[in-house]
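Review form for a predicted model. The reviewer records the input and the model, then writes brief findings.
Reviewer: anonymous (R2)
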Amino acid sequence: MSVFIDITGLPRERITFGPSPLAELGAALHTLSEPAHHARLHGWITTTTSAALKPELADRLHEADFLWRSTRADILLPAAPRETLGEELDDLDLMDDEKYVAAALEISCASQYGEGLPSPLVDAGVRQRALELAAARGPRQAAFVRQMLADPPGVRAWIRRLLEDCEEAFFADTWRRVRVQLAADARHKTEMLRRKGLAEAVSAVSPAVTLEEDGLRTRIVVDKLSDGRTAATGRGLTFLPTAFGWPHLLALSTPGWQPVVQYPVSTQELTDATPVDTVKLRLEAVAHPMRMRLCRSLARGSYSTGELADTYGITAPEVSRHLAVLRKAGLLTTQRRGRYVLHQLDVAVVARLGSDFLEGVLR
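Model under review:
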């Protein structure tokens, strides 16, 4: 499961790195909505919540938080970053109502995100689905979605005022402090792209982002627990650094939109990211009852196949098969002692399994 971005034939100058105030505000609002995802930002969350979020503003943010809470609406990930939030909101104002509402109500097509569903403004089925899913999120969200469907221009103006009020209340100061870091990261990636090539620049974005080339096709692969396919040919590809992102790695792959990847600026946690397929393999390896029992011994010391077979009352070939699964998942270390091969659980890898799983599902 990954998001694939086809960049075959795309000129390198159409691949850009740059900070976006609107995207960063969206990431910051998600952080405020889901603080448990962002333990590293506890200080900023506490300060902002207590000092800058007046009750009236907090109430309005709660009303519209489906735009950034569990998913990030595509309208918050501009493909053409600007210097100021106002400029990016001006660009957003140029979008027609059908496209804007379809992107804002992404909850109405999350399971069919890559299919390019019609706008709820013109399709009765999509409209009804949007209303039903909004109702499941509570009466305020349901009322907000009904209002957006009934009066798109009025709600669009309301959302713009909300984002502008966030800028005045807390984001202007936050943006002044993080934009230098984000701009420096974008310049570094741009220079790396120019001097060392796309593969180096992409690998510097995240270990979860890779470049694949097979002679006929070139594509960016974003390792996520979701599927998506899009093409940057004829449009371009934008990378947006964020100081609020980790552990999330966002890839906008809506059909007809320019692909955008929002990536966290380099951190130690991100550097150590484990591919989701590896996490899946490890969870499946330890889920088997007998392998769990074998791990009980292997966590305590080194054992040979024969010792484990005797301890658990199974045959040596059965033990070997279970050990092969654990070894393939990278959960065992082995050493030879004379004519015996001794196996032991890699406790450090197993200890990270919970955090690797959480990082993978939140990515």
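Findings: Residues 295 and 345 are 7 Å apart (CA to CA).
Further findings: The chain has 16 helices and ten strands.
Recommendation: see findings above.
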